[in-house]
Design a protein that fits this description.
Helix 2 crosses helix 3. The protein has 8 helices and 10 strands. Helices cover 30% and strands 20% of the residues. Strands 3-2-4-1-5 form a 5-stranded parallel beta sheet, with helices on both faces. It has a 5-stranded mixed beta sheet with strand order 6-7-10-8-9. The longest helix has 15 residues. The protein is elongated, with a radius of gyration of 20 Å. It is α/β, with parallel strands linked by helices.
């Protein structure tokens, strides 16, 4: 029997389209003895794994039965010690609300070597695919990426600060808080601010709702949006090629 060499690699799988993973990510999958993969990972990526690789689904999704983080941490260590190279395949980028840092902290307690392969976060990948620039000279000098709610279910405190800036704001995991986010911006006199929601971004069943704070719920219902979806807020959303057409349609309906 060959000697087992424990190793854990966190790999970002990107926003959904399997072509949006890096070559280094594919190479890690090809060398993996075990792959622990998430709900938002495109399972086409698992076809790159060798036949002997053990593939384990450890997805966590809102409002559904899910695998606990403590159990995932334990699996990473157990499989590394008994099988060798474990790839933790995560949607987007492991360090953008992917709890990758927590997983590394746990694994390192056991002196297991680790590596990270960055992935394309939905916050920059899906906006790019929709041709919405996160920054634009004279319009937005920065962008904020914020979680929709905290671990105890409250609206993130950072949103209360972001609403007062001209920065582009990308909200991940915030669909269930959409109404509260809209009310926050309206209460701060920003009901006219452009906003977009992108569901299943980069995939064939992608859906888009685009408009202004005061009218976006109508567009969301019209386009039957749901989770998973990201929210993009800011004047740069008006750069989307369909924004002006939708704005005129809404004005016509309101007239």
């Amino acid at each position: 029997m060959s000697e087992i060499k424990p190793f854990v690699t966190l790999v970002g799988a990107g926003p959904g389209d399997p072509d949006l993973i890096t070559l280094k990510g594919i190479k890690a999958i090809e060398s993996a003895d075990v792959i622990l993969y998430d709900a938002l990972v495109n399972e086409e990526l698992l076809t790159y794994a060798k036949d002997s690789c053990t593939k384990i689904y450890v997805g966590k999704r809102a409002e559904r039965l899910s695998t606990s983080q403590d159990y995932i941490n334990k699996l990473l260590v157990d499989y590394a010690l008994t099988h060798g190279h474990v790839v933790r395949l995560k949607g987007g980028d492991p360090f953008v609300f992917g709890r990758g840092g927590e997983e590394l902290d746990f694994v390192r307690q056991f002196d297991i070597p680790t590596a990270v392969v960055p992935g394309i976060s939905s916050s920059v990948g899906l906006t790019g695919l929709q041709q919405i620039p996160l920054t634009y000279r004279g319009i937005s000098e920065s962008f904020w990426v914020i979680t929709g709610s905290t671990s105890d279910g409250r609206l993130s405190e950072d949103l209360y600060h972001a609403v007062k800036t001209n920065a582009t704001v990308v909200v991940l995991m915030g669909y269930s808080k959409l109404q509260k986010i809209i009310e926050l911006y309206q209460d701060n006199g920003r009901g006219d601010l452009p906003i977009a929601l992108i569901q299943n971004g980069s995939l064939e069943n992608e859906r888009l709702a685009i408009g202004k704070m005061d009218s976006i719920l109508q567009q969301v219902h019209k386009n039957l949006l749901g989770v998973p979806a990201i929210i993009v807020i800011g004047e740069v959303v008006a750069k989307h090629q369909s924004f002006e057409r939708i704005r005129k349609e809404i004005q016509h309906l309101e007239a």
